[in-house]
Design goal:
Radius of gyration: 21 Å
Distance between the termini: 33 Å
Strand order of the largest sheet: 1-4-13-12-14-10-11
Number of helices: 4
Strand content: 25-35%
Structural class: alpha+beta
Shape: elongated
Low-confidence stretches: 1-27
Number of strands: 14
Order of helices and strands: EEEEEEEEHEEEHEEHEH
């Protein structure tokens, strides 16, 4: 991964961004924590998508809006809690146990955590966690596509090609060879250039990347993208989108 620039950002229904060499026009400069933008071309951050994902529940990690059912096996009086939804903050509210952070856990890890939280109140021989529904993921597709905006994606279709298709495809001015994927992790912005044209025409599977909730897919209208000119102005929009979709 190659660090290319440092952004200065303040998040409150938007970001104020200062790049080396000057501020973005129309943005009032004020002190804010710095955000580093890093180009990531390996599989550390961005992974190649599987067009037919075989989701193994033992490996699947719970995400926002997923719904689970809880059943105590062999409990004489019967205990079951159905339709527990993981909230936008990653927390789920359970009887007796209160709020528990489940986002990012496998079903086995969630089971062990819930078992530990309920044990003071029940003698549970065995606890079973089942996944009832996968929550919808939201991706922002912007730039030169026919229908830009926030796209609600099914968990089976969380890849760049599907996201661009959901936005009506690349328009006549768009450059499908230089699509940018942007993801924020712990205050760091990671991005990767994707040649979706190579995926479609040459069957290069490495050019179709798996998406995560909140990712940005940006289709430019000119040649090679310059991050400071083509991407940074949209980060304000991204921060606003994230703020407006928290609930």
């Amino acid at each position: 991964m190659k660090k290319i620039t440092t952004l200065t950002a303040g998040i409150l229904l938007g970001m104020n961004i200062a790049l080396a060499g000057g501020n973005i026009p129309g943005v009032q400069a004020e002190e804010a924590p710095s955000i580093t933008a890093i180009e990531s071309n390996d599989n550390t951050v961005f992974k190649v998508a599987q067009l037919r994902p075989d989701r193994i529940l033992g490996e699947y990690r719970l995400a926002k809006y997923d719904t689970i059912n809880i059943m105590a096996i062999g409990y004489s009086n019967g205990i079951g809690v159905n339709d527990i939804t993981v909230g936008v903050d990653g927390m789920a509210r359970l009887p007796y146990a209160g709020n528990i952070k489940l986002v990012g856990l496998t079903l086995d890890e969630a089971r062990d955590l819930i078992y530990a939280k309920l044990s003071p109140y029940f003698k549970l021989p065995e606890l079973n966690i089942s996944l009832k529904n996968y929550g919808a993921r939201k991706v922002y597709v912007m730039g030169n596509v026919n229908n830009p905006g926030i796209k609600e994606m099914n968990v089976d279709n969380m890849n760049v090609y599907a996201a661009v298709s959901s936005a009506g495809g690349v328009d006549k001015r768009g450059r499908s060879k230089h699509i940018q994927l942007i993801r924020q992790i712990d205050g760091v912005l990671y991005y990767r250039e994707i040649n979706i044209d190579a995926f479609v025409k040459k069957h290069d599977l490495s050019q179709n990347i798996q998406l995560e909730d909140g990712d940005i897919v940006y289709v430019p209208d000119s040649g090679k993208v310059v991050f400071s000119e083509d991407i940074a102005p949209y980060i304000n929009v991204y921060a606003t989108y994230r703020a407006l979709t928290k609930d």
